[in-house]
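for the writeup, i need someone to sanity check this before i put it in the appendix. the sequnce is what the collaborator sent (i think, or maybe the updated version? ugh). structure was predicted straight from it, no edits. if anything looks off just tell me and ill rerun, i have time this weekend
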Amino acid sequence: MKWWARIKDAALKVFIPDRLIRTKYEAFKSLLEHDYLCHELLAQLETWYHERRLIDVQGVLSRYRVLHGALAAMIGRLQDMAPGRYGPLTERLREIDERLRPHRVVPRVADPSAPFCLPLQDIPAENLLRWAGGKAAHLARARRELGLPVPSGFVATTRAFDAFLAVSGLRRTIDERLAELDIEDSRAVRETAGFLVSQVAAAPLPAEMERALDACFRKVFGGRSDVPVFCRSSAVGEDEALSFAGQYESVPQVSRDRLPAAVRRVYASKYAEKALVYRVTNGLADAETPMAVLVQEMIDARAGGVAYSRNPLQPDVEEIAVYAVWGQGDILVSGAVVPHVFTVSREKSQVVRLKSGRQASKHVVSAEGGLREEPLTAEEAGLPPIGEKHALTLARWLLQLEELFEHPQDIEWCLDGEGNLRLLQSRPLQLRAWRPPACNPEVLEEAVETVLSGGETAASGVGSGPVALIRSPEEVSEVPEGAVLVTPALHSRLAAIAGRLHGVVAETGSVAGHFASVAREWRIPVLVDVSGAMKSLAPGTVVTVDAYRRKVYRGRVDALLDCECHPRHRLDDMPFWKRFRGLLDGISPLNLVDPGAADFSIQGCRTFHDLMRFVHEKALQEMFELGGARWGRFRGARKLAASIPLVVWVLDLDGGLEDETRASQVIEPGRVKNPAFRALWKGLSDPVVVWPEGLRPLDWNALDRVSGGIVDFESQTLNSFVAVSSDYLNLNFRFGYHFVVLDVLCGETAERNYAALSFQGGGAGYRGRRFRVLFVRGVLSRYGFEATVQGDNLRARLQQVSRPQLLEVLETVGRLLGVTRLLDMEMETEGAVEAHVAAFLEREAAKAGKRP
């Protein structure tokens, strides 16, 4: 009831002004706490974006929700301070939040309703991708529209997955864990992945879903219970613009009674370490990639492999590539063998080349379930796994699929025991140009030394870095940022560290491996089948991988690396970063620069930052009004008769001012009893701090040159505010566009004492403001503060110090705040930051008679 709040406020002004002062101060103090949190969250979001930190979408959304809540609380506290005056702020926040909705809402809403299971041929065409995921949808179309031999099967739909998460209560658990996940912290990723995988694998399927699985099994396989099936991932987003190659688990040779457990294993693989890193790195939200499970008849394959409708490295060449191995094809895509390669002319439909592979063993179906490895027979070792006739059939399929999906295709296939080919997968083929002419000088400088040459290009490009050797997939987490990885085999788990790699050299593997697909997505140069790589490349040695020429050079070859034609990192192209940018555009920009300007109003607030600035400014004005003449002899805010050009108002909470000041409107700094304030003021008024004559809260002449004259020199809103008790100080200082919040408890008990400082803002650009806070951090750290910087926001804290030590530090802090005016406009390099820090410490040491 706004009318009652206004009447109550008026009554307090007349009859109990002291209570009103403290009521407003409590609201003000709460407002400042939420303001601090808002700036902290804003700085974190800006840092994540500008530094391209690899974080889950949930991390951004959760910070947004907390930021929105803290800003709403700020508005609420301002409305408490001035009932009835700022009501429209709530609606303004709602309008901005609604405008940002497209950037903060994951573009898919979970739907836990039936159908939970459908045979491939029964999935409605309009719902194929949404219900069945990429892999199953493509196979359904290939079977339905082209009549290709796809193994019989059905799909546990994405709605079944949504129902599983809803009934088990895991959706909230997953979102909370992902919101705090730092993909660049390998240990945290392992712990999060391990926890989520165990939770998902252990949760039972809903009873209705189990019944649907059983009914669909009976319908597709004619009531037979002895048909072994293959449970495969088919997530939304998989086998589309991104391949997710090898990131999810497939469960082979599953009996009917083990089907629910196998489905849960596929679900759980969505949260395995490599899948988590791949998804987050590629900017997809967890809710955007719900998991469907493709359940198909298990084929006891005589041979298997991969085929491309175009050469992924030479797309302009009119050739089809068919890769074949003995046994199940998983041994090929895992990168463990070198396959036989049939090259087929697209124009003449004939095999033009056959390259022999190297394979000593194969994977076959085990009677006990799953797969087992066994050596090739003597006959198999001497022959290709398939003949030319099979290669030409696969080539014909590829051309049909390419026409159907209107894009070059990457397929997986197998040959059953009766000699029949089966289509197991079809997805868009990632293509890379072979040799950009401008990046391909014919002759390198003679000084360049070739360390290795040969092998096969699995992903083209050039990259350089120190060599890192690993001998097993378990060692991937130890690979440092920017490394050239040298490994015996091209394992799919390398996808978990794709963002760290500048190149890969493997002794085995092929273009057809899962990681090769990921590397082409990430534009990482990869050489495979490079004999002796593990012995020839020493750890730590800087090399340059030239996948175009299939060579490894010693050192960094700038002639190759500095070419502008090389494909660059693709983060900016990802939908996540585009949505993040859109979100920041409604949060971060500060349009309300001058509190005295006409547009400094509720209607002028266009972003969260504008609202933060407006609310903070109006809260300060509400507190400043406490010092007006209408309060008479009551203990309102007094203006400080400052000897330096700062406009400061002081509010006594309890024992912070001398009793004789109660009737005064203006007081001298010496009448403030609070020891922390006295120490700080001593530093601010030290002769070492130069305050030019006529300065108004800071050097307006210099600032005017920077700000283009937009500041009103006569503005009376450019004030600072101090609240003091006998041992407590809360200070909000303004130096033009710079904001300082200092919170201090300085009593007799060292264990309780602390000083917390927040420093933010400035009139320069982002780099200048950031360098300024780095300078402040550099100084404060030398005095025992724990200081952190996010963007242009600094937060520092000093704890458990004796009163004399704290007062000495606060005097230094006063000098530090005084000399940092306009430093954001002077410091342009990190070297300048270090020089300013050294100079300040040297002056302080000389003043104290100590070494810096």
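DSSP finds 25 helices and 30 strands in the chain. The chain has five domains: 1-100+586-636, 117-297, 309-428, 437-571, 644-852.
thx in advance!!
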